[in-house]
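Appendix B. Extra example for self-study. Work through it before the problem class; the solution is given directly after the inputs so you can check yourself.
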Amino acid sequence: MGIRRVWLQPRESTVRVLYSPARPLQHWGVDTQTIVILDFGSQYTQLIARRIREQNVFSVVLPCTAPLSQVQALKPIGIILSGGPSSVYDADAPAADPGVLELGVPVLGICYGLQFIVHHLGGKVRSAPKREYGHAEVAVEDTATPLFAGLPASMHVWMSHGDEALELPAGFHRTAVTPNALAGIAHEQRRIWAVQFHPEVHHTPLGPQLLKNFVFKICGAAGDWTPAHFIETTVASIREKVGKGHVICGLSGGVDSSVAAVLVHKAIGNQLTCIFVNNGVLRKNEFASVQRNLRDKLGLNIVAVDASERFLAQLAGVTDPEVKRKRIGAEFIAVFDDEANRIARETGGVDWLVQGTLYPDVIESSSVKGPSQTIKSHHNVGGLPEHMKLKLIEPLRDLFKDEVRRIGRDLGMPEDILGRQPFPGPGLAVRILGEVTRERVALLQEADEIVVSEIKAAGLYSKIWQSFAVLLPVMSVGVMGDQRTYAYTAAVRAVHSEDGMTADWTPLPYEVLKRISSRIVNEVRGINRVVYDITSKPPGTIEWE
Ligand code: XMP
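Solution. Structure tokens for the complete assembly:
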């Protein structure tokens, strides 16, 4: 996964909000039909959840060790047992409560999920003589079973398993095979189905149809989990929870905190105060544009604090990247705390804090994923010093990023905000190598604005994970007109990534690079050279500091 630095985000504070399975999932609307996915550790588990949600059916991932009562409390209309890396005979094989097979709720086992079902219902699993991993052709034997409704008798699938079911438990029959292995089983009276392949991955082209069959034909889902439904139930539940209380929210201008704030605002109006801090290292015009978008267009109650002097004073003389992060983080807490206290005095007390925590952070820290759990725990920590004792509202806790964008669109939020590329909390400070001064910030703001606007003009902005300029403390000789110049260098960085953990540099078209370079050199006085960063992550990182 490469090297990860420990970040101190500007919204980080002494309060560490850690996600544990014990923290209940937010539940909006008792009548939300839910598919529960029990996670046995497969790398594809999140994909199953997404595929189900794409059908407008809500799904949640629980660790396979979740107590039966927790599964029942969600009143699932169906249960999916995910794949996993283990063998059912491993000493530390992850185990779910076999009671999930007795609830009378339809069950779909996938890969390890199939082995789990066979093993726990009295069949036999053995290590397969031939490990199957990759593309395979499945022949459907039971075309009448609803799981395969509308699917052809033969289809491409993605297999990955080392064990195979040797003897089926009583009452089960085979529904599909590959040339080397069993591919599907069912016990229709008990409402249990299982497949050895992975219907959730892209390499199983008809997988979505199979999952759709499970969700609609077998579980009887209505498919009414839409953005409108989500907004309606979330707004109602926030209203009920908060009552007459007062809520604050730290806005960064990014997608998550903005959508969270707009949802809460829709529920309780001006009982919500958002705090938006100019830390002196925002992008060009960002302090004004975030206010324009969120206050002027969407009506949010925003306290905008221009604390750039305070931050820049803290950064004077600092060149070490981690010291920059720490200084910005500490200053942010100080500013936020001052404002929150002032709001508390004015409103007679603040009771709640809104956070834009997303679902992957929740799953990542509560599933059986081993060491990856802690990687992101600092990601969405935030809040205020402990003495404020705030309760949390996390309206996006159950959503993936693309779902957050869909909700934002339904709330009428501008694409400017929803399509924004990620921007680090310490802002331009980690893109100015060496000391951060007001002059250098201004130089980088200009160069960065040119990079972003040219990439937007080329129609590439939404296809790229992050694209920006970096200011290097390297001075070189150039010539402008008849004049010798001696000025700074800007590096252009553009990367493709799924989640920021790994990244590939983007081969920007030469034409775009050419325009960026010529505009920066001509328009930004103080920069006379532009280079392109062609380092992937790993071994590089996305940010230069
Ligand atoms: P790196 O540079 O580690 O960045 O490859 C991965 C992703 O994280 C963002 N990033 C940060 N975000 N505070 C943040 O809120 C930070 O200190 C920080 N450092 C990096 C980076 O922009 C990329 O999306």
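Self-check: The chain has three domains: 30-218, 227-418, 437-532. If your reasoning did not lead you there, revisit section 3.
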